[in-house]
Each structure stands twice: as structure tokens, then as C-alpha cells.
Amino acid sequence: MKKKEIKDIPKEPPFIIHGDVNRPKYSYPTHTHGLEKLGWPEFFINATAFGAVNNAKLINELFIHFWLNPDKMEILQNQKNIEIKPWSNDDMIICLRIVPYSFLGVRKAYNYHQLSKTDHAQVYVKGDDHVLKDSYYENIPNSDPDAECTNPMCSCSKMKWN
User: Contact 81/95 with Cβ under 8 angstroms?
Assistant: First the structure.
């Protein structure tokens, strides 16, 4: 697969991000809508990882990483997990794993409305194994399907990069 270049990154992201900036400690997972149109899994990350704003920034960083390295997306889709060192913090390892629709974190992120045929990739920090269990998401509220986009790269978002 041909590696893409920085100039090939879309000016407007082909997805939106939902996250709750008002309740950072008790909120639904920050998650994407629209990545499935690229043939990618939708990304979601627990709200308390970095908070909705920084989760959105991480999701954007992952989008750019996978956009520039399509072979890594193939690894994720075929092997069902991958580890990445983000540019913004090379001391950390970010993991992604494909999870089934039956995983409670997916159902909370998408408020039970996402089609079960869509793949979902859980984003988490290596070592945060507690977020890999359904029990972690039991007391977390469902997402708001009418929430505004919180992707700081989108023109539709009221949030912008710092």
C-alpha cells in the first residue's frame, strides 16, 4: 500500500467527534462518527483518559497517523490490535483494539444507535487494563445523540486547537 504524504491529509476531517466537555469525570466515551465511510473502525476512548478536548486531539492525531500509514490500519483491522507511540507524548504507548458491538463501552459511546456491523476500535493507554472490561462502563451514562461536534479540526466545532 502506498504511503501518503502530509499534503494528502484532508483539510476538513471526514468524521466528527462527540465528547462531553461539561462532565469530564462522569461522562460517556469520546467517540467518532464517519470513519466507517473510509472503511475504518470508529474510534472511542473513555472520557476520563484525557478529558473530551484532549481525547479529541488524540483521536485527530491517530487519524493523521493512520492516514499517513495505511499499512498500520491494515494491521489493526487484520490483527485486531496495535500499539502506537503518539507524537505528542513519546513516553506513552497508545493501544487500539477492535471490540464487538456487544462491548458495553461501544454501546455507551453510541447510545445503542450505532449499527452493529460497524467495527469499533477502543483507544486506551497501555497499562489501563481496567477500561477493557464491561464493568468499567456500567455506571457511565449513554452519549447524547444530539451532541455538538467536539473535533477541534472541524469547521463545525466551537472548539479549536490551543
Answer: yes
Q: Give the separation between CA 153 and CA 34, rounded to whole angstroms.
A: 14
Using CA atoms, how far apart are residues 140 and 143, in angstroms rounded to an integer?
Answer: 9
3-state secondary structure of 31: strand
pLDDT range class, residue 129, cuts 50, 70, 90: very high
Buried b (16+ CB within 10 A) or exposed e, 10-45: eeebebbbbbbbeebeebbbbbbbebbeeebbbbbb
Task: Answer yes or no: pTM beyond 0.90.
Answer: no
Question: Sheet containing 94-99: which strands, arranged edge to edge?
Answer: 16-18, 30-33, 42-45, 120-125, 94-99, 81-84
Which conformational region is residue 112 in: left (phi greater than 0), alpha (psi within -120 to 50 degrees), or beta?
left
The residues pairing with 33 across neighbouring beta strands, listed in sequence order, are 16
pLDDT digit string, tens, across residues 31-45: 998 999 999 999 999
